[in-house]
Amino acid sequence: MRLITALCLALPLLLAPLHVAAQAQPAVLPPVPAAPAVAARAHILLDFNSGAVLAENAADERMDPASITKLMTAYAVFSELRKGEMALDDMVTVSERAWRTGGSRMFIEVGTQVRVDQLVRGMIIQSGNDASVALAEYTAGTEAAFAELMNEYARRLGMRNTNFRNSTGLPAEDHYSSARDIALLAAAIIREFPEFYSLYSEREYTYNDITQRNRNKMLWRDPSVDGIKTGMTDAAGYCLVSSAERGDMRLISVLLGTSSDKVRADATQALLNWGFRFYESHRVYAAGEPVTTARLWKGEMDELPLGLSEDLWVTLPRGRYELIEATTELQTPLVAPIAPEDAVGRLRLTLDGESLADLQLYPLARVAEGGLLRRALDSVQLWFE
Are 279 and 313 in contact, with CB atoms under 8 Å apart? Predict the structure, then answer.
């Protein structure tokens, strides 16, 4: 089987469906300044859509995540809700163990019954340790069993430097995560559970006649921020996961181990402003959208549209989008029958010789063999190809 490679000198030539207007490019594009210095033990800033990392330091080091642990508690609960294993209006009887849990609290009372949706809000908005334990016990029987469930979800998400021992983030031996893993988890919550993610932007919640404000100060100082979670213990320091959306671009920042609430908020604001100012994101193609066409032999159609199985996003310094070069490499000849799951080529994007994307191309239609005459005529033509 032969390969045919087509090189496009500029991205808009290949990506005609995007209708990208050609623009004159400056002779020299301004450089991107270095990311702001961050006074944290570890941090990362990434683009939600493309997964591109814009800035990082010690992002894979294992550290105490404090109450950021509750992101995985929430992810596990959301997953069980979606599977139908529990419901938001289920009533949870508060155990003495949950009631006695120290640290930040929702102030649920032992022996009372509380709805799951109330506990979820108490955990997310008020960072209630008591709510987290009550949810863990209701979901898995014991908090220890729930921690095993948390770790299973962490493995599925590719969190390689994470291990949970409880649902709260209270200090425990062998309880750790990393800035990169936490960013992956935050992105998964935003992507998989948009109906629950909106809770992370709520500024206060009242339960048992006690109103508590969300500890994430970014919700007040930056209107583009819509989540996501704070954490603080003496061992972990002040931690913050934030997500902000401006236009079509969403960024996620994670800071672990800062010295104060103000430091974590100021550093987060600096990282977000820098990322939005100097970078841009584009969806080059949506999943299932035609990228190119190929000649199909011996089938019910002659031209076969090809596309991607997932959305293709790129994140790059501003002003450089139209400098991207695209290459398609197709197997040939393509002969029917052919199915959408059959990889038949590749799409590669580069910028200044650096790879931006390398994805397989798939047929966008299932095509059966053509009639006897079509197959015979194409067989003859193939002899001369």
Answer: no
Which candidate in 50, 67, 242, 253 is catalytic?
67
Inter-residue contact 223 to 196 (CB < 8 Å):
no
Beta pairing partners, 305: 293
- Select from 346, 352, 345 the least CA-distant residue to 324: 352
Of the candidates 22, 73, 266, the one whose C-alpha atom is nearest the C-alpha of residue 175 is: 73
> 0.85 cut: is pTM over it?
yes
Tokens at 175, concatenated: 């309880």
Tell me which H or E stretch contains 255. Answer: strand 249-258
pLDDT computed for residue 379 by the predictor: 82
| Cα–Cα dist 88/76, whole Å | 14
Distance CA 177, CA 198 (A): 24
Tens of pLDDT, residue by residue over 360-379, are 999 999 999 888 887 788 68
- Spatial contact of 89 and 117, defined as CB atoms under 8 Å apart: yes
Please state, in angstroms and rounded to a whole number, the distance separating the CA atoms of residues 145 and 193. Answer: 23
Closest CA to 254 of 181, 198, 158, 316: 181
Distances in Å between the Cα of 224 and the Cα atoms of 66, 142, 254, 269, 354 are 25, 38, 16, 11, 31
> What distance in Å separates the CA atoms of residue 271 and residue 35, rounded to the nearest whole number?
7
Active site residue 67: yes
CA dist 117 and 150 (Å) reads 19
At 128, phi and psi to the nearest 5?
Answer: -70, 115
C-alpha of 92 from chain center: 31
Report whether the peptide linkage leading into residue 228 is cis, meaning its omega lies within 30 degrees of zero: yes
Marked catalytic residue, from 50, 104, 127, 132? 127
Statement: residue 10 has pLDDT above 80 = no
Question: Between the CA of residue 43 and those of 34, 38, 176, 233, 271, what are the distances in Å?
Answer: 15, 8, 15, 17, 10
C-alpha 373/C-alpha 289 separation (Å) is 31
CA angle 14, 16, 21 (to 5 degrees): 105
* CA gap 367, 314 in Å, rounded: 31
Tell me, yes or no, if 127 is annotated catalytic.
Answer: yes
Annotated catalytic residue: which of 70, 217, 229, 298? 70
